[in-house]
Amino acid sequence: MSKLTVGCIVLGRLETNCYFLHREGEYEAIVVDPAQNGDKVFLKLREKGLSVKAVLLTHGHFDHLLGVNEMKELSTVEFGGLTVYAGAAEEALLSDPELNHSARIGKSYTVKPDVLVKDGEVIEVGSMKCKVIATPGHSVGSVCYYFEEDDVLISGDTLFFESVGRTDFPTGDAGALRVSVEEKLFALKDEIKVYPGHGDFTTIGHEKQYNPFFSSVKA
User: Fold this and answer.
1) Residue 145: helix, strand or coil by DSSP?
2) What residues does 17 pair with on adjacent strands?
3) pLDDT tens track for 97-136
4) Is 150 helix (H, G, I), strand (E, B) or coil?
């Protein structure tokens, strides 16, 4: 199986990491959290010879989804469509501009996913495969996407480099976030590469050892 490539485009004033994943030599691509300018992201990937077949949303806050509808519309019109995935418990945030905070920036925005996924489900796009890990805390429906064959975890705003996502937005829960990270993410192998929604990349082992929010956990 060819190598999984993980590219990153930083988007918006909150500097959201929008990832695109594909296997070397293959054209199918996955985009994670298109924060804005979905049309530009879509066409940029087309210039690279990639066809976006799926959009994965880690959660429903505005700074992770303002490019979804543009991308989906362009795909449907010109390239046969793509599938939007999101956590099953996140439907309320995705459908409510007040809850997802898009209304607060004057851009009331909603997204209707094609598929609502639950903990443990597997998504396959071309030869890529990822497992859904439900990680409530930053929001009730936050999920991470684990590409087990490739030692890659897309963590959204659940786990950052030596930090975690805030929990003071609607449906956030600090206790739930701690459980999600300690019991689910820290159960993964130390060498797993972690690609967060903002900031630098990291590994599970590094966070177990150095993340100050989990000082009791050691690698």
Assistant:
1) strand
2) 10
3) 998 888 888 889 999 999 999 999 999 999 999 999 999 9
4) helix
**DSSP per-residue letters across 60-126:** --GGGTTTHHHHHHHHHHHSS--EEEEEGGGHHHHT-TTTTTSGGGT-------SEEE-TT-EEEET
Distance of alpha carbon 97 from alpha carbon 89, whole angstroms: 16
As a whole number of angstroms, the distance between CA 18 and CA 34 comes to 5
For 34-93, write each residue's pLDDT tens digit: 998 999 999 999 999 999 999 999 999 999 999 999 999 888 755 678 999 999 999 999
DSSP 8-state class, residue 165: -
Residue 208's SS3 state is helix
State the Cα angle at 18 between 110 and 204, rounded to 5°. 115
Q: Which amino acid is at 207?
A: E
201 close to 191: Cβ distance less than 8 angstroms: no
Q: How far, in Å, are 16, 55, 144, 150 from residue 112 at the CA level? A: 21, 12, 19, 29
